[in-house]
Amino acid sequence: MKDIFIGVDFGGTRIKLGLVFEGKIIADANIEAASELTFEQRLADISLEINHLLSAGAYKLTGLGFAFPGIVNFHTGRILSKYVKYPGAENVDLDKWAKANFGVPIAVENDARAALVGEWKHGAGIGSSDLVLVTLGTGVGTGVLVNGAPLRGKNFVGGNLGGHSTINFEGSICNCGNIGCVESESSTWALTQIAKASREFLSSKLAALDVIDFKNLFELAEQGDALALKLQDRCLKVWSLCVINLIHAYDPEKVIFGGGIMKSSHIILPYIKQMLDKHAWISAADVDLVVAVQPEHAGILGVFELLKQKNY
DSSP secondary structure string, 100-139? Predict the structure, then answer.
């Protein structure tokens, strides 16, 4: 019988599950985020998926891990912040839930911090002790490793709020309540609103889209659409300044980039390197900018590693 671990990564649209044996994903599954359901209802469905994964082989479950998109107290396993996609998550004692339903311990961590640990141990950060991870997409997630330890801070927000640092003090109010955040200036959820506010919107092919995401923005920019090119440059500039702020704050050896948009890394990374050389206190030669090696499973592998650090 194999001793295995199951990690669960809570995304904006999908919940991913991975079965980990000896540090490798040997099976996976996913279900819809289904934000109309309560978190406790999603936990019931997750339990069914976990049992389905366990029924596929001679497995003994030894631990669980949740990578969650919010502020998390790693030591108690409690989710501290409300998140619209998973209503009621902050009211659930996940340590109690794991022991009652499966008789095993659980590690719960912020999803970006978990992905950082996954990349550190199993991906682009192997061998490094100072890292920053940036995930670009629906929002902007960040995680930081300093001297070989994940940065958390007193209130567990350490290193996680790069996407909610102010990049435009005259900007709009972000969904977090701050002013002109990186996310409110350049993320999927803000992109349609920013495009519609542009004078060139009606003459752009972007106007024919119900939802504007980075995939179609970059595709239309490649086709020469004037507004798409303008918005692409805006996003690249915002991301670059975010990365410069993170580098100035944490002085990492590497910055690891994740998210589906990194299929356009040939456009994004050279732009950020140019901005570093132009505006940062260090040059692009002093820090490696690399693409995540584990884009699908970094969070799952991260909570697998983090469970080892917890004392039960």
Answer: HHHSS-EEEEEHHHHHHHHHHHHSTTTT-SSEEEEEESSS
